[in-house]
Amino acid sequence: MHNSMGKLALLSLTGVLALGLLALVWAMGQGSSEAQDDTMHNCPHPGKWAIAVWDGADGTDAEQAFDTCGEGAVIAAYDLDPGTQGWSRWFAKRPEISNLTTLDQMQGIIALAEAPQYEVTVQFNTSVTQDDIDEAAALLRAYDEDLEFLIMEIWPPIGRALLTTNVPDFCQTVETELEAKSYVDDVSCGPA
């Protein structure tokens, strides 16, 4: 009797293990058949580089593949050819210098996404001083140190800046920061 119980327990454990393996194989098979869904994995964040992988058909047009990250989001990409050990390159809207024209299934590339540009207009009030204008410019340079903050020489002055940043919710953030200043009447921000 004791021997029969041991065999029954072993048989039950084997059955559970077999069902578990069967479920795992089914899940892996399900995943691999659905994996090729014509998408770029690990798309770069705005203004950043990333190692991305094409998960789609062999011979897919490079621009079509990169557009799965968002239309026009990827602006440059490089690939190291395993056969020639040479670099291939792709630049948006520059076919004359691009030699990476197609991507194959599971091909890894180094991709750069464009950082969004914004135009910020600051309407100062009559209490503004030069130090205040400098403070507003410094606040904007915290997002893009290379920006030019142009001041229209009218009274009260208006400042305009074109800047590049990948800060989430940039416009809402910068409008809140600048409108909190006593020398600012209004701020507008939008895509450039």
List keywords for this structure.
alpha+beta; Alpha-Beta Plaits; 3 domains; five-stranded antiparallel sheet; four-stranded antiparallel sheet; 11 strands
Structure report:
With 192 residues, this protein is of the alpha+beta class. It folds into 3 domains: 1-35; 39-113; 117-191, Alpha-Beta Plaits, CATH 3.30.70. 32% of the residues lie in helices and 31% in strands. It has helices spanning 2-35, 62-66, 130-141, 170-179; strands spanning 39-41, 49-55, 60-61, 74-80, 87-91, 102-103, 108-113, 117-124, 149-152, 158-164, 184-191. It has a 5-stranded antiparallel beta sheet with strand order 1-2-7-4-5. A 4-stranded antiparallel beta sheet has the order 9-10-8-11, with helices on one face. β9 and β10 (158-164) form a beta hairpin.
